[in-house]
């Protein structure tokens, strides 16, 4: 019986000692794991934190560079727009100056038109007036200068011709004849050229100036010259001038 009890006593003594040793070993393992984990985390942070800051700096520099490029592009667009604005302003000022000059010229033209309209002869629209007639005798030729005016500021142009009728004495009798144009004393125009030019033809709206030469018949003593303005066969205006004999 004694021998049987001794092993039981020994068995109860050894079991608690092994249990405390296992717990201690586990605790040390956990502590070592915590220490290793904390150290690893600190080492990881120590190794990775400078890299993160470098990436942030590079990202910030890239953003700054992009902002600078955007600013340069905006400045370029601003310069282009400012140049266009300066050009448009210059063009506008030029157009305003041209418009002002045109308006001034138009006002002057209207004043001149009003002045000339006051000079128009009285009478119905389209009537023709002989404003001036000058006749001078040179040998066998008569030189004439005529100024005609028509009361038609907006009318159709007048088409007609001049007719010169000469009154005088020939072979002791008083006669009245129609005169034909001449080339004049200093002209080299041929009669055929005179027929083509025909200086007696009229075509004007408000004013017409005519001048030329008329041939006198041989032995004719002129006393007066009558100018008729014809439209077809109708006399629209007439004027008579005495012919002064040369000294």
List keywords for this structure.
single chain; 247 residues; five-stranded antiparallel beta sheet; four-stranded antiparallel beta sheet; 2 helices; 30% strand; disordered N terminus
What does this structure look like?
The radius of gyration is 62 Å and the shape is rod-shaped. The longest helix has 118 residues, at 2-119. The protein contains two helices and nine strands; from the N terminus they run H-E-E-E-E-E-H-E-E-E-E. The strands form two sheets. Strands 3, 4, 6, 8 and 9 form a five-stranded antiparallel beta sheet that branches. Strands 1-2-7-5 form a four-stranded antiparallel beta sheet, with no helix packed on it. The chain is α+β, with helices and mostly antiparallel strands. The protein is 51% helix and 30% strand. Residues 57-119 form a coiled coil.
The count of strands amounts to 9
How would you sum up the major sheet? 5 strands, antiparallel
Structural class assignment: alpha+beta
Cα distance, first to last residue?
A: 202 Å
Report the β-strand fraction as a percent range: 25-35%
Radius of gyration: 62 Å
State the helical fraction. Answer: 40-55%
H/E series: HEEEEEHEEEE
Regions with little confidence, pLDDT below 50 for 5+ residues: 1-18, 188-195
Q: Overall pLDDT, averaged?
A: 76
Number of helical runs? 2
Shape: rod-shaped
How do the helices and strands line up, and which of them pair or pack?
Elements: H1 2-119, E1 128-138, E2 141-150, E3 158-170, E4 173-178, E5 181-182, H2 191-197, E6 201-204, E7 207-215, E8 221-231, E9 234-242
Antiparallel strand pairs: 1-2, 2-7, 3-4, 3-6, 3-8, 5-7, 8-9
């Amino acid at each position: 019986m004694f021998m049987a009890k001794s092993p039981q006593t020994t068995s109860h003594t050894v079991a608690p000692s092994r249990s405390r040793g296992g717990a201690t070993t586990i605790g040390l393992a956990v502590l070592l794991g915590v220490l290793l984990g904390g150290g690893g985390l600190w080492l990881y942070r120590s190794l990775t934190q400078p890299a993160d800051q470098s990436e942030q700096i590079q990202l910030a520099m890239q953003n700054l560079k992009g902002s600078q490029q955007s600013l340069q592009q905006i400045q370029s667009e601003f310069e282009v727009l400012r140049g266009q604005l300066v050009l448009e302003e210059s063009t506008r000022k030029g157009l305003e100056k041209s418009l002002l000059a045109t308006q001034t010229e138009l006002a002057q033209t209207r004043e001149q038109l009003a002045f000339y309209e006051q000079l128009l002869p009285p009478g119905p629209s389209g009537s023709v007036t002989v404003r001036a007639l000058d006749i001078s005798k040179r040998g066998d030729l008569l030189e004439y200068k005529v100024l005609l005016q028509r009361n038609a500021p907006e009318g159709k142009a007048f088409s007609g011709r001049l007719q010169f009728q000469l009154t005088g004495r020939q072979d002791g009798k008083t006669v009245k004849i129609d005169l034909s144009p001449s080339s004049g004393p200093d002209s080299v125009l041929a009669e055929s050229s005179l027929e083509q030019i025909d200086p007696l033809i009229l075509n004007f709206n408000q004013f017409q100036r005519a001048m030329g030469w008329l041939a006198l018949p041989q032995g004719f003593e002129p006393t007066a010259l009558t100018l008729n303005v014809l439209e077809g066969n109708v006399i629209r205006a007439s004027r008579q001038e005495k012919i002064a004999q040369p000294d």
